[in-house]
Amino acid sequence: MLTLHMPLLLRFVLFGMFCLVIGASVIYDNPAETPIWVVALPLGYLSLVLCYAIVTRPRIYRNPGLLIFHVSLLSLVLLAGFGYLARFSGNLELAEDESFSTMHLTKSAPGPLHRGDLAQLRFMQGPFTVAYAAGMRRGQTQSWVKLADAQGQWRWQALGDDRPLRLRGYRFYTTPNKGFAPVLTWIADDPNMPAIRGAMHFPAYPLQSDTQQQQWRTPLGQSLHFSLQLKTALDPAVAWTLQKKGVSAILVVKDGDRIVNLRPGQEARFSGGRLRYEKLSMWMGYEVFYDPTLHYLFFVSIFGVFGLAWHLMRKIRAIPMPSPSRRMSTR
Amino acid sequence: MMNVTPEQPWLWAGLFAYGLATLLGIVGVARGRPREGLVLTCLLSGVALIAMAITERWLRQGHGPFVNLFELLMSQLFSLGLLYSVVYWRMPVLRPTVVVVMPVIWILGSWVLFLEPNPSHLPPTYTNSWLWAHVGVGKVFLAFALVGVGVGGVNILRRWPPFSRWFAQMPGEMVLDRLAWQFMLAAFVFDSLMLIFGAVWAQDAWGRYWSWDALETSAFLTWLLLGMSLHIRFTYRVPGWLSAWAMIAVFVMAFSTYFGAPFLSPAAHKGMI
Predict the structure, then answer these.
(1) Prediction ipTM score
(2) pTM of the shown model
């Protein structure tokens, strides 16, 4: 087997690390617009060099600490690469009392090797609150969801900013994206057409509190414009809590030149049917993340640090430590 | 009229104690009559006074010193002072490094004096317990890197005639260089832990363990630079003064990661605000 002289091998290592420094500098603060190969390529190259070094360098394979550290590094790169291909990320909005389905996803990005069962997951959105400090600084989010247990019974679970819902490897994170959602029913004049009921998600609140507008097309193709006149406790100067309780909302429906104001429980007639404003609800935006390698990444990296620490301890013991008197001089 | 917050007098007193430790340390080493007991007493007094400043602010605001630059500098002044005091106490051979280490700590000390102690708001993702682990090992990393720089700095200083006499009692260049790199290796261990714990926190807080944001990338570049330096140092015979400059470069990178990246880039650690 071809064995490279150590300094030559080190030059290969340093070249790879230097390329990684360049790649990381290119991606610095701009990951969305930078192709991932700028770091993936140097990492792939370094993995090959590392693989070679582990197999051929006695300094590594005869030193347990260094061996553990370098094997862990190699495993980390491989795991991260596989995780990148097998992951799933997406966004969704869910109104209170709605059950999750993949239909709610507003954005999804499955990796080419993703084989999860997102469609099998079941949970229902409950109420939520978001605390704000004075000056509109967002505080804690508390979102309750209902989960079906093995016996088919529902149980509540509270989620928050750093407490995601974990289901079969998928993690659902609350986001700052949330708002109001009036629940509406469309009752067609044609008795053969079923009633349509759903929550209309208005723009994020309080971020877009001035533009609470939405559009909807009836089954007959008539376009209706909606705006929501909200009365909340929002006052940027004081602390407050965003929640459904205590909020009143008038739904203003514009049909051409005709304007109708609706309160919860009221309805109005439009061409081809009636629209009933059932109640005011709220929607919460979630981020979904799935990566089957997360736990392995953690344990492998901790194992690697353990190897490095072991190596450090051996090196410290090998140093002839000059030890003058421990007494403090106070002269 | 200037508004003085309750923690500021404690902070100023702590900085005064650090100043005294610096002065006594340098004069002692220069004259060959190190007043080590006094230096350590001043150091520990400074640590205790800055701890009081942090406690005062913590009780008033209801959260730890994690958010704005004033708080980060104050907490680093505490942790660097504390960990260096332990090294100063337990490793007598390294006590003359006070000449290098304390002026570096004083860069933070003079910086914090120019900052307004503005109140801060704890972002909702900062209540996670992994934050504590991440911040804790990060402080140990920076402290070990600082001691490494202190030892390496002695190797640079002693090349100049006025300083060579100051460090005559210390071991030779090669021994000091080896010692300095042990500290840098220890720093590498804690830097690695900082990245791992930070990734776990980021996964909980923002739904991803790594996203190449400014702060993450800067921390990764520091880790990479330190890894490169260790590879070079443990393979080649590098002159002591040159390897000391490599340590300084790593420390400068770490310093800019801590006190530059989070405040220069609005996108650093998305979701922080």
Answers:
(1) 0.88
(2) 0.89
